[in-house]
């Protein structure tokens, strides 16, 4: 059986700000939507939805673990774009034997990660 994630949902009180962030800062492609529908982003066969509501933030911030992580082809250019938009990268670039990543909060407070796997 070939099971893949179909959709991921993030909650945001300010949906337009989060839509701008994921479209214009992170660089995700927004999908056509019906009037009144929540924004949907195309993630190569998976959909990221931004839903109106209060994000469920963790009660204990440690250990840090993102709500969603995006694999990127070029982490350095992604970081440069985040910095150009004034996104705070509180832990800087982190790495292990398998990958390099950076974590940050989106406008709603969701912890997000961009990751580049080593080849």
Description:
The mean pLDDT is 92. The protein is of the alpha/beta class. It is built from 2 helices and 8 strands. It is 18% helix and 32% strand. It has a 4-stranded mixed β-sheet with strand order 1-4-3-2, covered by helices on one side. A hairpin with a 4-residue loop joins strand 3 and strand 4. It has a single domain (7-117), classed as 2,3-Dihydroxybiphenyl 1,2-Dioxygenase, domain 1, CATH 3.10.180.10.
Helices and strands, with pairings:
Layout: E1 7-12, H1 15-25, E2 29-30, E3 40-42, E4 47-52, E5 68-71, H2 75-84, E6 93-95, E7 99-105, E8 111-117
Parallel strand pairs: 1-4, 5-8
Antiparallel strand pairs: 2-3, 3-4, 6-7, 7-8
Shape: globular
Intertermini distance: 26 Å
Q: Roughly what is the average pLDDT, rounded to an integer?
A: 92
Number of helices: 2
Oligomerization: single chain
Architecture in CATH?
Answer: Roll
Model regions low in confidence, pLDDT < 50 over at least 5 residues: none
Quick description:
With 119 residues, the protein is of the alpha/beta class.
Please tag this protein with its features:
119 residues, alpha/beta, 2,3-Dihydroxybiphenyl 1,2-Dioxygenase, domain 1, four-stranded mixed β-sheet
